[in-house]
Structure formats: structure tokens, C-alpha cells
Amino acid sequence: MSIRADQRQPNTDVDPSIDFGYRTTAFQLPGFSWRASWRLIMISALLFVVASCIAVVGLTIGDYPLSISEVVNTLVGGGSKFQQMIVLEWRAPILLGALVFGGLLGIGGAIFQSLSRNPLGSPDIIGFDAGSYTAVIVMILIIGNRSYWPIAGAAIVGGLLTAFVVYVLACRQGIQGFRLIIVGIGVTAILGSINSYLITRAAIEGAMAVGFWSAGSLARISWTSLLPSMMIATVVIIAAAALEPGLRRLELGDDAAVTLGTRVGAVRLGLIVVGVATTALVTAAAGPIGFIALVAPQIARRLTHTPGTSLLAAAAMGSLLLVGAQVLSLVLGILYRPVPAGLITVCVGGLYLIWLLVRETRRQYGVMS
Known about the structure:
- With 369 residues, this protein is mainly alpha-helical.
- The chain has a single domain (23-364), classed as ABC transporter involved in vitamin B12 uptake, BtuC (Orthogonal Bundle), CATH 1.10.3470.
- The chain is 71% helix and 5% strand.
- Strands 1-2-3 form a three-stranded antiparallel beta sheet.
- Helix 2 crosses helix 3 and helix 6 packs across helix 11.
């Protein structure tokens, strides 16, 4: 691998008001290259560090409180057996899951917002989350299987089928982001009705299990369910990194992407599969967690000042948001009663969605520049 830094600074002989951009670094491997600004790299690293520090703080919160020094000592191999059980066996999978799943949701949101060229084009708005949720409900209530692998497979298949339906219905004289979102909202409403029907027709025990699961709680994550998710997540993240150069070219338009040597159909299909897999993995392990995929890429884009949504920055911001929501859930559990992290993200993300809808409506009708 070769790393090359490119310092972009204004020349003293030209107008100093001209912005020549940030210093960039190019990473090159055989058949793969990636260029990023130092601002993007530094802010993404800072977000990951802050998210990790918040996760360590979260390890101290619970019915048996610990100090940060006790947690750090346990993480490096010290501490009593009781502390090791609490930190390593009970709490660590939940906080590590928040880091991983938040990053996956950020990547999925960045992919679909780039493909749709619309900040509203996230999986939970378009309906892919709802498709995964419906498939999991069918697996639990009708088929009666609650094991991880069948649920994960059902979530991925349900998300892909929903993506196929949405794209077929929205693909008329080319795919437009606004039409894709409107069709996705309609499909989400239909799937929501199906989910309600299945839950009302189920036995009380099954309906309660699905109801608690649908709140999007990380509390039930254990190493048994987290390790398979992390194995699949590693493959998904590698695939997303490999497809990101193609995603950047697709943002220029299909004609420009073809001119640059991109196989538009294959790259777009690969990105859709990867994007659906990110949200399906989270849905299978923790239930539907809304609005992280919607919010994280846009906040990251404003922090990094990139022209489009960066997968790296979106993953870092997604990890920070979900870890923050989980720690807030733990604090509320101590002060009042446990609140699933999914409910917290919905409350915060709903306010952001209202603001974004108003902003996009004003821009659509020329109220905003």
C-alpha cells in the first residue's frame, strides 16, 4: 500500500480569496485507490474516539456501578471475577454492539442518500427497514423460529425484496430521488399495516415478544448474537469500502460514471445489496433502530465539509449517535426506568426529520436559496 499526501494551498502569485481545498491523502492498493482530505480523516477519527470514550463510560453504569478506573483495569485483564463478568460478559457486548451497529446504520444511510441524491433517502424512510421488520415478524410469529441465523437471513431477504419492489415502482424514465422516497413511504405504510395485522392475530406471548423487539433495544445483545453479526459486518464494510469509488462516480450522473469506466448497473446493484445488509443486520440483532441512518450522514457531511456523504464519516457519526443513545438509555434506567435506545433515536430523529422536511420543501419551491 502506498500513501501519498497532496498539499493544496493557495499560491502566493494568485488571488488569495480562491479556495484550493484541504490537504488530501491518497491510499493506493492493487486495483483500489482512495483519496480523502485530512479534515475528513481527522474528524472521523475524533468521532470514533469520542464514541469509544462514551462506551467506556457506559460500562460503568448499571445496577452495580463501577468507576472508570475499575472498568479500564478490567478491560486490560485485571479486576475481580465478578467485575469481569459484569464488564466483559454483560455490558461489553451491548456497548460494542452500539459502536458496530451505529457504524453500519451510518454507512447504509450514506449509500442510499447518495444513490437517491436526497437527504431523505435513508433506509428507514424508503422502507427497507420495514421490509426487514416484516420478514422478521413472519419468521418469529408464523414460522416460529427465533434463532439468530434464520432471523438474520429473513431480515436481509425482506429488505432486498422491499428494495426491489420500491425500485421497480419508482423506476419510470429513470430513477429520481423524490419519486423513490414517495414510493418508499407508501410501501412502508403498507408493510406497517401488514405488521399490525400479524401482531394482532398472534398469540399474546408472541405479540409481546415482537412488541418488545420492535422497540429497538440493545439490551438483549450478547456475545452469541454479536459475534456472528460482527463477522458479517466485516464483510459488508469491506464491500462498502470497495464500492465507494463507484458511488462517488455515480454521484456525477450515470453518463459521467460510464465515461469514467464504471459499470453502472453492477455498481448500483452491489451498493443496494450492501446498504440493505447494513440495516438488516441491525434489525436482526437489535430490532429496528430508526433515524440513525437518516441523521448521521448529514451531520457528518456538515462537519467534514465534503461535497457528498462520506461512508467513513457517516459510520463514525452513526457510532457516536447510537452509543450516546444507549448510554442515555442506561442513565434513564437508573433514574427512572429502562428506555430502549431505538425509542430515543426515534424521538430525536423525528425532530430532525420535521426540520429536514420543512427545509427541503422550502428549497423545492424556491423559498430557500
